[in-house]
Amino acid sequence: MQEIEFRDAKPEDINDIVELVIRLKRLNEEFDPLFKTRDDLAVHTKEYIGSALNSESSIIIVAERGGRLVGVVKADIIDRIFYEPRIEGRIRELYVLPEFRRKDLGKQLVEAVIKKLKNKVDIITAEFPTLNEIAVRFYNKLGFRSILSTYAIEARI
């Protein structure tokens, strides 16, 4: 098996990262219909990732094997103006291709982003759909705990 390299994302990775993030967003849709993806998801995902690649408050790390991106993690640095600890690193996107799961790739991506965030933030959080019990178990196993809940109701019922 070829070795997997973990590295900072580069601008030329954008299309592959967009593909992975779109897969993640479509996976989120399976957990809850309120995460139904938009028809123009690719356009907005490309803008979102392009903006993050040019931002000093975002970190994107990719896992690459043989020239192919097989996983990605994206975190943003946020100022929690009401709370201490104040500066938060929030993991917003984490995706590993299905054939590379259960090989600690997700854990290694999270550890890599934590290493990058450590001297920049006071607290590290992760966001994902509440009904994604696999993610709940994954982050709990890594020592994360729930600190915020978001509840939703459709406005046009």
Give an overview in words.
With 157 residues, the chain is of the alpha+beta class. The protein is built from 4 helices and 5 strands. Strands 1-2-3-4-5 form a 5-stranded mixed sheet. Helix 3 links the parallel strand 4 and strand 5. The longest helix is centred in the first third of the chain and has 18 residues. It is globular. The relative contact order is 0.16. The mean pLDDT is 96.
**Strand coverage percent:** 15-25%
- Sheet with most strands: strand arrangement: 1-2-3-4-5
Oligomer category? single chain
Helical content band? 25-40%
Instruction: Give the rounded overall mean pLDDT.
Output: 96
Number of strands: 5
Low-confidence sequence ranges: none
Q: How would you sum up the global shape?
A: globular
Terminal-residue CA separation: 51 Å
Described by strand count, sense and barrel closure, the largest sheet is: 5 strands, mixed
Task: Work out the helix count.
Answer: 4
Class by SSE composition:
alpha+beta
From the alpha-carbon coordinates, what is the Rg to the nearest angstrom?
A: 16 Å
